[in-house]
Inverse folding.
């Protein structure tokens, strides 16, 4: 799929729209951005959504449908204000909110954590939104969707990021810019780690893992909609759209599983109390890449590669910190990656069942965010890969 050159989707977060002056400045950024065609996504002003949620908690029980309808008022207000700011500076603009004929984001009926129906959404984007580009600037409510019964839904907290990337996908935009109140992605939360540093580039898998691990800079689910060659940047509002920020590279291959294999691994097992001192001594002796770590009651196993396993066993034993050490060689690894693993825990069980049905013993299975790693006898690797492929493709 060819991307449209000079076409961008720009999303502004709520903190960046907290006053009339900041809205005016954001609108000026868009007008002066230099893109041939632009669509804008806006969040609710400041802490509007938090205030609305707090108010609802005080008035009593509110249904999920009512919740979505009420919190939508924040984004619906922001679109009108941003539209007015664009027009006040001489730009042609149009605001788009749910219940308008041109509304693009169609979802399921999960009012608080809705998932976009990409087939229907892309049809509507290309029918209504795309023809506007270059003639006017559409300003779209972030965070919101509409189900097939025309009820308002929400995409979950941080859902404006999802709106922006979904629109970028449907429009085949060359670039998606998420404007935040921070200098792109940082090496840690600067509120917790004062000397955190900005990261210039980060892979989409790394960003996904960070987001799922608690970093709130971008909504993890939004990343699943990025097209392979699309440019996705996170920039600082204070430094402008052309600032360096952080570029998120690659895509999550959301329609296919990524399968990698590795041979000639060894499992180094140690009987040991699991504490920082012992683990530090263990890892200080390991010079080769580590492909997996598992811990049990008084034991730890490291999966790595060694030409001479006896050397590392002697080194570890000589430390005098471990009750016993042992090794197992000729181990193979299958590494599976797919963002679907995050929200559907059944996959580990499904893969285990597929291997068991072929009498393939699992030495160890580990999971981390969007990855599942399975360690088995190397001699069974080919058969295991076929079993895994059959399981995940059905």
């Amino acid at each position: 799929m060819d991307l449209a050159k000079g076409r961008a989707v720009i999303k502004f977060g709520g903190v960046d729209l907290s006053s009339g002056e900041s809205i005016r400045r954001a609108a000026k950024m868009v007008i002066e951005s230099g893109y041939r065609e632009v669509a804008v996504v806006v969040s609710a002003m400041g802490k509007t959504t938090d205030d609305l949620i707090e108010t609802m908690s005080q008035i009593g029980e509110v249904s999920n449908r009512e919740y979505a309808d009420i919190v939508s008022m924040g984004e619906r207000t922001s679109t009108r204000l941003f539209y007015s700011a664009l027009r006040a500076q001489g730009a042609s603009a149009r605001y788009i909110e749910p219940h308008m004929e041109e509304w693009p984001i169609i979802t399921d009926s999960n009012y608080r954590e809705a998932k976009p129906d990409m087939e229907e959404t892309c049809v509507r984007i290309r029918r209504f939104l795309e023809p506007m580009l270059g003639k006017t600037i559409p300003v779209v409510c972030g965070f919101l969707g509409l189900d097939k019964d025309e009820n308002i839904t929400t995409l979950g907290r941080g859902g404006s990021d999802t709106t922006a990337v979904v629109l970028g996908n449907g429009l085949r935009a060359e670039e998606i810019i998420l404007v935040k109140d921070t200098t792109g992605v940082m090496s840690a939360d600067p509120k917790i780690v004062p000397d955190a540093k900005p990261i210039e580039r980060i892979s989409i898998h790394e960003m996904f893992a960070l987001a799922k691990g608690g970093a709130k800079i971008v909504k993890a689910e939004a990343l699943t909609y990025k097209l392979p060659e699309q440019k996705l940047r996170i920039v600082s509002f204070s430094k402008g759209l052309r600032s360096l920020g952080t570029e998120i590279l690659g895509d999550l291959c959301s329609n296919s599983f990524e399968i990698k294999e590795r041979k000639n691994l060894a499992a180094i097992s140690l009987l040991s109390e699991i504490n920082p001192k012992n683990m530090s001594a263990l890892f200080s002796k390991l010079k080769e890449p580590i492909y997996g770590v598992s811990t049990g009651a008084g034991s730890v196993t490291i999966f790595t590669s060694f030409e001479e396993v006896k050397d590392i066993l002697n080194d570890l034993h000589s430390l005098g910190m471990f009750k016993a050490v042992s090794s197992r060689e000729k181990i193979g690894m299958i590494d599976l990656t797919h963002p679907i693993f995050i929200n559907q825990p059944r996959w580990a069980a499904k893969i285990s069942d597929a291997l068991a049905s072929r009498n393939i013993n699992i030495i160890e299975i580990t999971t981390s965010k969007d990855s599942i790693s399975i360690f088995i006898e190397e001699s069974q690797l080919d058969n295991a890969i076929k079993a895994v492929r059959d399981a995940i493709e059905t």
User: Anything to note?
Assistant: The mean pLDDT is 92. The two ends are 27 Å apart (CA to CA).
